[in-house]
Design a protein that fits this description.
heterodimer; A: Arc Repressor Mutant, subunit A; three-stranded antiparallel sheet; 3 strands; 64% helix; 12% strand; elongated; B: Alpha-D-Glucose-1,6-Bisphosphate, Chain A, domain 4; eight-stranded antiparallel sheet; 4 helices; 8 strands; WH_DNA-bd_sf (chain A); Helix-turn-helix transcriptional regulator (chain A); DNA-binding transcription factor activity (chain A); WH-like_DNA-bd_sf (chain A); ArsR-like_HTH (chain A)
């Protein structure tokens, strides 16, 4: 990996918008053209292209233009870098809390007897 | 089995904070005891397959908890949490740090302030915990370190991350 310093900040900012999140979610299923991506949204193409530009600037999406058709692809590595650590923390605390639930049940049962 | 207990985990890169809210099916004093007593903490604080072992716990302002999380192979990861404010059964503020077995804090790694609130609820207790890093750069540092440690990651996390971010918008 030539760049292991991930700019989480720009990734989170890129994902802070519902339109951009929907685009990322759609691209998670596979590459798509700009017009396919824009179809579900009630906005003009220039406004939509700005969203694509933000995702590209964050490194989450790359695109290539062939003739008049621009196809976008999700950069999964980037996304995993952002999601990974927080998700690990979330899972770690989930596991801890479940152990605490079990301990509390044991302690409650003991206090009753 | 009781219905699913509330669990929210909300990272915020902008303010370098992580907010967690968790509901428990037990009275507040009992939950408090589990957070503040060494032998009880050792029974829940390390996610499996790790185990937790307390070396020192002095639960008062100015005191600290020194403990290790130990892997099945015997590798020890030490932490030290210094108690800065205590409101019995209601709240705890502490400074979280990476340390060694002798309680010496690693000065190269950021320390986070953790504020925990314990609220009595109808059927139990709700614990809110806010972990705040001094700056975005500090949080980034901790994340980079965690990722270098080779944590597993899968694309499945995307959906969970997006769900977390959407919940935040809805509030």
């Amino acid at each position: 990996m030539e760049n292991n310093q991930t700019d989480l900040d720009s990734i989170f900012q890129a994902l802070a918008d519902p339109t951009r999140r929907a685009v990322v979610q759609r691209l998670g299923e596979g590459s798509a053209t700009v017009s396919e991506l824009a179809a579900p949204f009630q906005m003009g193409l220039p406004a939509f292209l700005k969203h694509i530009a933000v995702l590209e600037a964050a490194g989450l999406v790359t695109s290539i233009k062939v003739g008049r058709v621009r196809t976008c692809t999700l950069e999964e590595d980037k996304l995993e870098a952002a999601a990974g650590w927080f998700q690990d923390q979330r899972e770690q605390w989930k596991a801890r809390y479940e152990q605490l639930d079990a301990l509390l049940d044991t302690l409650k049962a003991r206090k009753k007897t | 089995m009781s219905p699913a207990l509330r669990y929210d985990f909300t990272p915020d890169m902008e303010s370098a904070t992580i907010t967690m809210v968790r509901e428990f099916n037990a009275p507040r004093p009992l939950v408090w005891e589990c957070y503040t007593t060494a032998d009880l903490l050792d029974r829940w604080y390390a996610p499996k397959p790790l185990t937790a072992r307390t070396k020192h716990l002095d639960f008062r302002v100015g005191g600290y908890w020194l403990f290790a999380m130990i892997t099945p192979e015997g590798q020890e990861y030490w932490s030290r949490q210094d108690y800065q404010a205590i409101q019995p059964t209601e709240s705890i503020t502490m400074l979280d740090a990476f340390s060694d077995a002798e309680a010496s804090i690693n000065p190269d790694l950021p320390r986070a302030v953790v504020e925990m609130h314990f609220a009595a609820a109808e059927d139990g207790c709700v614990v809110t915990s806010v972990t705040r890093y001094p700056s975005k750069d500090d949080l980034q540092k901790v994340i980079d370190m965690g990722m270098e440690a080779g944590m597993a990651s899968t694309l499945e996390r995307l959906d969970e991350l997006l769900a977390t971010l959407s919940e935040k918008d809805a509030q």
